[in-house]
Records
---
Amino acid sequence: MSLVRHGDMAYFQFERGAIDKQRLDSVLTILSLVLENPVGRMRWENAKPNFSSKYVEYLEALSPQPDSDDF
């Protein structure tokens, strides 16, 4: 969950203009890999309500939820 929190802070900085999109995406790359893991995805699904809707949407667009057949 620390990666998710780190990504949230990066997204906050991006929204405020402190970092650019390229920097944000580089921070979130490792997180998108974690979300491809079934355990990581399950933890994210449980944690999503604790984050801003814009961050959730952005992260979901980077790492779309796999089909349930993939598990």
---
Amino acid sequence: MEEESDARHGRIYFVSGIDTDVGKTVVTGLMARHLASRGVDAITVKMIQTGCDGFSEDLDRHRLMCGIQPQGEDGEGLTAPQIFRFPSSPLLAARLEGRTVDLARIAECVDACAARRDVVLVEGAGGLLVPLTEDVLAADFAASRGWPLILVACGRLGAINHTLLSLEAARARGMRLAGVVLNWHHAADPVIDEDTEATVRASLAKSGQRVPVVRVPRVPEEGPFPDVDFSEMFA
């Protein structure tokens, strides 16, 4: 695996989650929408898409939320460099097709997007420690590229444990934490949700990590899409 990217034009952020089904795609779309509204030339990349055949449904969602058509980089295959049919971890999905995840290809595509754009939001697959290959976890790959982490969490039961474990894993790898996003979740009890936010904020303060924590409300499937302020994360 190659070391940290030398792409100097665009800033690259890695958007990962504390687990699957926490809303990384929605949050990534909202962040792209926020940046566009402020005149920032940003693009989203779905690093590895599983459960699809020949296209990335997550990219389609991003474009819908931004109110834009497919981008030139989409047609070039730069924004969805690895697509697998089976909905599982990238390692298993690739294995079932007799393939391996091409990390060099992902790095090349992200760097190509960064050379053209101000900001690249790289949405991961699953949680922070999902296996990409036999030897490399998602966090390992992002850390080796020097991508700052935006961690997507939620307020459902068990999220405190998953969030704190993810933050610990990021710290252990020396990843810079750009921010934490607490996303709305249909299974979240309001009391647990409130306590989760307070606990996460307290943990960040205790560890000396002064990073923004942004709340995201419920986002309708087809809109209207809220304008959420992520400016502190991209300052």
